[in-house]
Structure formats: C-alpha cells, structure tokens
Amino acid sequence: MPSTTRQALLQALSAAGGAYISGQQLAGQLGVSRAAVHKAAAALTAQGYALEAVSRRGYRLLGGDPFCAEAVGPYPAPVQVYDTLESSNRTAKLLALDGAPHGTLVLTAHQSAGRGRLGRVFESPAGKGVYLSVLLRPAASAQTATIGAAVAVCRAVQELCGLELGIKWVNDLYYQGKKVCGILTEAGTDLESGRLEWLVVGIGLNLTATAADWPPELAEKAGSLYPGGPAPVSRAAGAIARQLLALCPAFDCLDEYRARCFVPGHWVTVCTGTETYAAKALAIDEEGRLVVQRENGRPQALRCGEVTTRPARTE
User: Are 177 and 164 in contact (CB under 8 A)?
Assistant: First the structure.
C-alpha cells in the first residue's frame, strides 16, 4: 500500500472534522479504487489511528493522531521523530553541524531539558504537546525568523484547529488569556568568516495539558488548546513546519505579526536583564522591535527583553 494513499486518506478524513465520508466519495476524491481506500484505512488503523468504518455511512477519523512521521504529512525535507529528547533544538543543532539540509524537522513528544529564552526552563509535559525544531538554510536574522515562526504557528493553528492565537512580543503565543506556545531561535555562524550559516527555530505548543500537568508557579499562566485531549499532535507539527518554510527566506509577514500582537497600546513591565521598568508599548517598528516610552521619556526600540502587560501605569 503506497504511503501516499494513506497520507491522502488521512488528510481527507482529518479535513472532515469527524464526519463520515463514503468509500465511493473517498475513492473519487483520491483517484483510487474503493478496495485501495479499504486497504489504506486498514493500514492506518494498524498504525494506531482511531478510524471508524460503518456500513452505508463510510469512514471517519476519531480523536487525535498517533505520534509518527507519517502523520506529519507531505514534507519536503527529512523528518526526525523521537519519543523523548533532552531538547529538540539541541538535536537540530547537532544535525545542522553534520550538514543536514534546509527544512530538516526534529519532532519529539517530550523534552527532559527543554529551554526557553533568557536561560529559562521550558516545561514540556510528556505527550501533552508538540515540541519541534526546524533547521533553516539560508538563514535570516534570528529576530526575523522568530517573528515568522510566531505567524507560522498562528496560521497553522487557525488552519488545522480553527482557533485564533494572539502574540505577546516577541515570541509567546496566547489563547484565552494563557500562554500556549513559546519560540526559541538559535544561530550557527562560520568561525572564520563570522557569517550566519543556519538558524534552528524551536517551537513548543501546548495541546492537551491541564493545570495538573504544570508546576504550581505556572498553573495560572500556562494553557493549552485542547485541555485533556484529544489533539492533532503530529499533524500540528507538520502544519507549523510547512507554514514556516513557506515564509522563508523573505519572512514578509510583519504586518500580520503586528495585527496579531496584542502588546502595543498597553502599559507593560519591561525586563532587560539589567533593569526592570514600566513603560507604554507604542508599536512594532519595521525591524520587529517593540517601541516603548517611559513616563516623561523618549520612545525607545527594544530588540530583546521580556515584557508583561499590566492594567495601568502602576499596580
């Protein structure tokens, strides 16, 4: 049974959102015989998909998808799938140093030492999210790639799940007031020329975690798209990676990033690592920097740092 038939059947059933599709309709849609549809359905069931076949009604897909490379869907570069890793970014960087091609996707169900920005730990509850890293060659700037990754996740989630995410500058995504996704972009340079050779964009998206899966200090802040499940885990990874590659290398999506970013217009707490202060967030400039203004101060553009929205100038 060609894997392309299985992938096409999986895509058709996924798009149906749990509704039945007749074998005859699927055969016509996929351009194969009804016997081929039956064999492909049996193969998907054997792989662990919750696929239901009912006489005179057809086929439908129930629940989430199994964690495997095939569920990622059609993808133009190598896909590496792991049950657990120390960090998907670390593995992707090792693959980059070994000459892995542009677009290489590293996907894991669990990170034992996931990392966020500013050296923080990124909590990755096993089997509760999708943790992926994409290798980009030729590379853009890390700031530009991070902006592109945020837009890519928003597009993928909207396309696959029908859910709308908001962006908190620079790299956090929110749903229903809680953080559901973080992004960490890391670069590799040529030691002799100093030129940027590649970027690894790491993305962690919370899918089925509940408050009980988080440490107490995160339970009020962290959220997920489908608390308690099920969720389209591997398909979400494939959708995100494809959206990211489609934006590369131009990453011409700053206007969309601005439209999705909810920070401008709010008072924020800015933490630069050397100081913390209150400021009014004004706008995202043409370089993706956040323009802020302290009270009685001049506007300044932040290239990095951490911001937290606050209800007013003082709390």
Answer: no
Mean pLDDT to the nearest integer, 94-115: 92
Provide the token pair at 170: 């620079």
pLDDT tens digits, residue range 143-189? 999 999 999 999 999 998 889 999 999 999 999 999 999 999 999 98
**Residue 181 and residue 151 in contact, taking contact as beta carbons nearer than 8 Å:** no
- Looking at residue 289, the DSSP 8-state letter turns out to be P
Q: Dmax over Cα atoms in the chain, in whole Å?
A: 74
Amino acid, single-letter form, for residue 206: N
Euclidean distance between CA atoms 24 and 14, whole angstroms: 17
What 3-state class would DSSP assign to 41? helix
Residues 6+ away with beta carbon under 8 Å from 196: 139, 141, 187, 188, 189
pTM: 0.81
Reduced DSSP (H G I as helix, E B as strand, rest coil) percent helix, strand, coil of the chain, to 5:
30, 30, 40
Please give the Cα distance from 81 to 105 (Å, whole number): 8
User: For position 185, what pLDDT does the model report?
Assistant: 94
Task: Evaluate whether 59 touches 30 at the Cβ level (below 8 Å).
Answer: no
User: Please, is 264 exposed, middle or buried when counting C-beta atoms within 10 Å of its C-beta (0-12, 13-18, 19+)?
Assistant: middle
